[in-house]
Description:
2 copies of one chain form a homodimer. Chain A folds into 3 domains: 2-56 and 74-271, Glycoside hydrolase, family 65, N-terminal domain (Beta-galactosidase, Chain A, domain 5, Distorted Sandwich); 301-311 and 318-380 and 653-762, Maltose phosphorylase, domain 3, CATH 2.60.420; 410-622, Glycosyltransferase. Chain A contains 17 helices and 31 strands. Chain A is globular. The two termini of chain A are 32 Å apart.
Amino acid sequence: MKYSINYLSLNNKDLVVNETIFHNANGYIGIRNNFEEAYPSGYNTVRGSYINAFYDFAEMKQAENFYGLANEKQTMLNVADTQGVKLFLGDEQFNLWKGSIISAKRTLDMDCGFTERYIVWRSPMGKEVEIIIRRLTSFVRLPLFLIDYSVKALNFSDNLYFVSVHLGAVMNHANPDDPRLAAESARYIIPGKVHVEETASFITSSTSKSGLKLCTGVDHVIMSGGHFECNSFAEKESAWTEIKIGIKEGEKAGFCKYSVFTDSLRYADCEKSASEELAKAVATGPLEIYREQKEYLDKFWDNAFLKIEGNERLNMALNYNMYQLLQSAGKESKSSVGAKGLSGEGYEGHYFWDTEMYIEPFFNLTVPEISKNLVSFRYSILDEARKNARLLGHKQGALFSWRTIMGKESSGFFPAGSAQYHISGDIAWSIVSYYFASGDYGFIVEKGAEMIFEIARLWIDAGTWYKGQFCIHCVTGPDEYTCMVNNNYYTNLSAKFSLYWAVRFYSLLKDSGDIEALAERIKLCPEELEEFSRAEKAVYLPYDENQKLNPQDDSFLSKKKWDLSATPKEKFPLLLHYHPLHLYRYQVCKQADTVLAHFIFEDAQSEETIRNSFLYYEGITTHDSSLSACIFSIVASKLKLYEKAYKYFGNSAMLDLYDLHNNTKDGIHTANMGGAWMAIVYGFAGLRIKEDGISLAPWIPQKWESLCFRINYRGSRIQLKIEKSRVTIVLLNGAEKEIKVYGKPYTLKDRLEIPVNYSEPA
Amino acid sequence: MKYSINYLSLNNKDLVVNETIFHNANGYIGIRNNFEEAYPSGYNTVRGSYINAFYDFAEMKQAENFYGLANEKQTMLNVADTQGVKLFLGDEQFNLWKGSIISAKRTLDMDCGFTERYIVWRSPMGKEVEIIIRRLTSFVRLPLFLIDYSVKALNFSDNLYFVSVHLGAVMNHANPDDPRLAAESARYIIPGKVHVEETASFITSSTSKSGLKLCTGVDHVIMSGGHFECNSFAEKESAWTEIKIGIKEGEKAGFCKYSVFTDSLRYADCEKSASEELAKAVATGPLEIYREQKEYLDKFWDNAFLKIEGNERLNMALNYNMYQLLQSAGKESKSSVGAKGLSGEGYEGHYFWDTEMYIEPFFNLTVPEISKNLVSFRYSILDEARKNARLLGHKQGALFSWRTIMGKESSGFFPAGSAQYHISGDIAWSIVSYYFASGDYGFIVEKGAEMIFEIARLWIDAGTWYKGQFCIHCVTGPDEYTCMVNNNYYTNLSAKFSLYWAVRFYSLLKDSGDIEALAERIKLCPEELEEFSRAEKAVYLPYDENQKLNPQDDSFLSKKKWDLSATPKEKFPLLLHYHPLHLYRYQVCKQADTVLAHFIFEDAQSEETIRNSFLYYEGITTHDSSLSACIFSIVASKLKLYEKAYKYFGNSAMLDLYDLHNNTKDGIHTANMGGAWMAIVYGFAGLRIKEDGISLAPWIPQKWESLCFRINYRGSRIQLKIEKSRVTIVLLNGAEKEIKVYGKPYTLKDRLEIPVNYSEPA
């Protein structure tokens, strides 16, 4: 599947958005799709190369400091820039802003895993060239970024000169006016050694405070039958390579620029590894690199297959989103998924609850190994979460930081940051969800149970008994337009879930003889389990008798209702136009909060209550967060509010490809991408995986002909095709499975065909 | 009355505390009592000269920025240092750390209004001198700071050399680890012109951002019969004067150093004014300056007279406190009273609610003109309060900034800053209190009513109707260990009070024909008044039926109780040892909150409820704020809990003089000083001034023989003397007054003698 755009106009805004849209990443490195030759001066650009989990500490002074507040954050670094290539046709420099563009197209090939820039250009002196630049970050060789630069002389013969740059001195980007971006542009990475070896160059850099190292190696291989020269040069903080190739009319010439990035988080000797990885890549050559990339993606698409017939735009958007999730997710347990993946500097490369609640559900059912890595990453920072809990005054348990890279809190405003205790419950939920989908009991024994026990301990310490009920005060739920409240419905359910599974896993591990070593190690005693159980049963869940719905928190319904219909469009997102204190005083939601609880913990309430809640919160939710519309879509599907389900899904699915939030320039919205997939799988298909198995309740929008997708459930690959009249469930491979459809149990041996049971209003 | 200490030991900690304790101020300028000759290097000092309301803007970057948050604060400036005098006896420099101290005493003479340093010192070479250095900031000539430096040669004849410094290049002090201090040391004031004229020097400085100017002028007059030379020199940012005086054994010699500070907030041409003020002071001479200072203070003490017989330590502390209040309070309507007065840089010279609730009560009854200035100051920033309300999202009304100098918010953490809406209610209360005490109806017409109408409008906009009651969500009450709550009892009562008085003043002004111009100017219509009235009657006041007390806010009683007895001493103040989020989750109070309401708005509840509340909050209040103990004392007096009343009073009264909070080095605690006075007048004497008049309910601690003090009530000066068996009330001058004692009405014509009606447990 290919996503292409023409770009005969060089609108700055579009250029910056497309740097994001066409970025190349593989979960380890991410390179924005900047023009190799750069834009003219005066154009905005976010030129960046990023490494997942590679960070520096940055000062984050509090305006008024209090005990325990974060005064330092981690920040993802913009690392060495290896994108630069300048091209000269004889003495004329290739520049799209001069001469004329005859044809220009940018393509993301999601089957083959590369992006391509195709240009036919006439120089001011009349030389015509066809330029094809392919870029690839290898899923098979994580350190590798390849630029395959090819030029065809259409009407002339001359020398081509290339200057290929390897720039060590780079800075992060900043915007002091947007709380979602870093406020200051700073130099975090300091180039140390720069050296060249014939056609190659190496730069070793160190971070300013975090003590990390990075080596970048760049080499060039000329693809041309004719005469050429290629020499590299070094200066203080960068290197460059000059290439001269003779070209004849009608011929092609060019070169491959291989870049490798090896950091000290993953490579014991990053200089040696850079040299080796670079040599291996050069020896392998582009054809084999393309082939293995395609092979990797063939497997991915075979597992993650999804097709919407009847709306190609949405079909494209969904597949684009899935591809981006694959590009964004860490491929080992040393990293997670940034809020913007590796596509930009928005949210500074931080990991939030997004990974657990919006991204892992996708990988659980398509590439469960990635999910396992992501939950394992949380285990790798469990000790930091324990320390964070102590810092916040808890005598026991683990409280994961709201935004982080290496585990420490990077949120500068604790009422909407550290106070979001639900992140620990979300992590518990993700562990259980991974376990449900994979059946990976070994992971629970090794890492999962320990995390859940520590999270349960946190809830016990954070909560308090009041009038016989277990209450949790002064936390912030998912909705950041209401902060530091008592008994946030979502948070309390999340705590209840964690406590339940702490007890459940304890009993499972005990039955299997796996509990002793762990209990000994973390000093877990049976009395604690009793306390978990007692609290779990008594968790207080706010409920309003009059309106028969769940208030977002104890006092939510007593506040003034915000009149969204009277709020001018330009005032959205509200957080950029209203003081937080003003927002907090109103019933107004940035995003799904109670509605999210009605999806994640749907069995806690009757359908009637969920319907009342949904309709209530719909009237006061701005969806200023990209994590919102998809959840509303899922719950609307559940409630058979089909039109709404479809509307919310569309808003969600196309967010980045059509820049609906007007900030795709800062990076893709990975959580929303997962959310859009969830809106299909959990929403339209009504999929649920619970302790007692898998179930479906499919419907399909009238405008579509069919919806087909595949999942991997406990080792069995299942394809589901929903058409207007029937749903066809095929067991592609693996063991047979019990499956409920519309509440009725079936055994999926080979294939099932079941009538679709819904009536969408015309 | 004199407060003296010996200082034969030169302990650094004591030295820094005494810089505060003995500082000189007059409400306009404040000079810390640093040694003229400085300490040796390596000693800590906060060397400072301050001007009330003279500020610069300082960057205050938010760690995570949101709409409307303050990114800039005002900060009081450390201005030109004119304290410096170095003394040489021949070629030996006077230095208390060398040679030997035979005698050394520091004295604050509160009757005469100067401080004195008395030293008998023997130099390493054996020269003995008696040095007397008197310092005075004139209450009569506000720009004037005088150093009267006298040396007696006890056993030698030689030349004395003085180097008197006038230093333009000064910085503010800082401590990044204490939220109550500025976090960064910065250069805010930039010396421009420096010039000398014979024995005098002038430095004109400008602030870096606020556009203010300051001129400091220094002149020297030699007091000696013998030969002398005196010459001034200028360099880039400072000036100095060299003085040589011949002295004979047994003789005295010395000089007066006159400094004047004229700023552009008060003086149109500050250079010209500096020159004039300096010339006038020099022409007046020290004797007349001492005389007029004494005259000013005679009048002050005549009005503010207070004497405790039976505890000289407390008597001293109380009188010291009153003197400091006089030193601290702005003497025109361009300034107020900093939380640390003009004695140090703690809280950066900011004005808080302290002025209205803890300091004006003292001035209302002793120097009402000062109170009038202070409430007028708030009127001068009313427009900024209107703007602040808009910034916080309010369509109408005025919300005063929580901490400020020129009106804009300087609080960096809005949950414990801007969210303290009660400050607007406090200002309303102070206006009404001033009106009650003075009967100054003219002020209400001119300024008071407008402020109260705008404050009432704010409450209407901030509040909301819920189940027939008027509620106020998401504010922070006085207790900063609980933030952003619903229906803080104190705040709601404060709103009720403002609304009541908006209606009341409207009607008063209407009856007198004074409303029209004002109503026209601020577009106040009768419908608004109806709304005020409706809301006032329906203000919701949380009350717990079970425990028969007022919860601090809606959810306070449902939180865990903090176990203060189990908290180690070194963990206080809690704010320096626990994360705010942890504190917020507990029933634990930094200070009186509901208990303050039970004093200020005592008629809202029965004595039984107040007693229950008092005992309840007593168990969970840390008194980490210096504004707390005095209020507990007052309410304990009201409840006849005499032992407690006395204990809380003592903690409050002696705070600074005995450095009980271990931070007097950063400045005096002005609010606490007013509070200690209130604990006597409102507590022990049971004084109340309400709309229906003045009343008393005196008692006296068993350990005291008598308590005597004077007040000024609506033009009549009244002296009250409480002895164990009787209270004697004398009308010193002015019209006769109706007065209630123990609930019984009397007419005070000349003198009343009434038996004291209380029984303190032995």
